[in-house]
Amino acid sequence: MLPADLFFQSLLAIKSQPLRTALIVLAMSIGVASVSVLVALGDSARRYIVHEFEALGTHLVIVLPGRNETTGGPPPLFGETPRDLTLGDARALSASPHIAAIAPLMIGAAPVSSQGLERETNIFGSTRELFGARHLHMAQGGFLPKIPADQARSVCVIGQTIRKELFPNRQAIGQWLRINDRRFRVIGVLAPEGESIGTDFDEMVIVPVASGQALFDTEALFRILVEAKSKQAMPKAVDDIRKIIKARHEGEEDITIITQDSVVGTFDKILAALTLTVASIAAISLAVAGVLVMNVMLVSVTQRTAEIGLLKALGATRRQLHMLFLAEAALLSLAGAAAGALLGQLALAGLQLAYPKFPLALPPWAFLAALGVALLTGLTFGLLPARKAARLNPITALAKR
């Protein structure tokens, strides 16, 4: 029996039982579609979060007040608080030769208004270095002036949402914006940035850090953004930050340092493991489809005993009968996998329409893996029916016993 004979004989057997074929293809397609959609969701979530953290800046180090650690014993009775970070701490970090830029940050919420229009929003206090550290872009005007961090100036930069709501029909550049009881002149409008790791720059007003501290009557910084000179310099920059702040804080290491690479790497590993886990769970449906293939083909062997007996009487070997039933299982599995791949792409297209801002895509390896697993499942569960058919006695089979 030639390979072409095996193929056409398998096609004839599949066509002769349309209901059986439809059930197997449906089961396989559901399994492949489930694996495709879940892998695409997991992998897209991983790439989205990694991209969000990478968009924070290049070689970024974040310094936060308070040490992030877990200790035993009861919590302190009177609410011990960490030492604040100050502009002096930020200026001291410039002593490190491994640091390219330092952007102190303070944040507060306040009402902003202009010519009778008012809304509540977040106020960022920082320096010009924030522009490069966070890879911001300007739509109009310029960013904060290059002045000493401790020098206040009544200027501000606004996001796109603030521009649209407070300056709907007029040019924002050069206009006055009132924040609490102080006036700031708008010198720049940010390009649309959207939300990044919980920070929406479109709804932000950025002022010089000293002006922000005066506005909210505080000397404390929310955090300090530090940009290392290179990826290789990041570990040395972290060590320098820890030493400098420790020396300024009376020998106490009371800060938390987060590096961009460590956060990206951690999320990448967690979400990659999660993707494989949900894909494995979805693959159970392929195993269920494989059981259906085995059961249906076992029934097929019983129904086709006369055909099998005739083939054996004509000289068909056990190996050829093995190949005949396995070819049928492979064709059914591939048809189900193709239908499942199409169904999965339709589901992903629907999800993309529902959530246009979330990039959904099935990685090529996942598509090939789903096809391979579907084929392997069909062949594995088709092996038992094939062996049963090959062991039939030709005389008994011809007699349909």
From TrEMBL:
Keywords noted in UniProt: Cell membrane, Membrane, Transmembrane, Transmembrane helix
Domain MacB-like periplasmic core: 21-243
Superkingdom of the source species: Bacteria
Topological relation to the membrane, as annotated: Multi-pass membrane protein
Entries under Pfam families matching the protein: FtsX, MacB_PCD
Domain ABC3 transporter permease C-terminal: 280-394
Gene Ontology MF term list: transmembrane transporter activity
Compartmental location: Cell membrane
Transmembrane segments annotated in the record for this chain: 21-41, 270-300, 321-344, 364-384
GO cellular component: plasma membrane
Family: Belongs to the ABC-4 integral membrane protein family.
Protein name: ABC-type antimicrobial peptide transport system, permease component
Organism: Methylomicrobium album BG8
